[in-house]
Design a protein that fits this description.
This is TraD/TraG TraM recognition site domain-containing protein. It comes from Bradyrhizobium zhanjiangense. It is built from three helices and no strands. The chain is mostly helical and about 70 residues long. The chain is elongated.
Length: about 70
């Protein structure tokens, strides 16, 4: 198990860590929710990049008519 620091705002990172750029670059897992400020939006956009992905999904379902009786 590894520690997972959580920041409410990207501006908190340089306040807490002198080498915040290295911290962000070496973090293997980044989770972002409700990104609102422009600096954070740019950061997320840069790490995600641009890509087109196609996916197909296939499933089956059936009803249980015994439950209807």
């Amino acid at each position: 198990m590894y520690p997972s620091p959580v920041f409410q705002d990207m501006s908190q990172l340089p306040e807490l860590y002198r080498r915040s750029g290295a911290f962000r670059a070496n973090t293997t897992c980044k989770v972002c929710f409700n990104v609102a400020d422009l600096k954070a939006v740019r950061f997320v956009s840069e790490i995600i990049g641009q890509a087109t992905s196609l996916a197909t999904n296939q499933g089956t379902s059936r009803s249980n008519m015994n439950m209807m009786r």
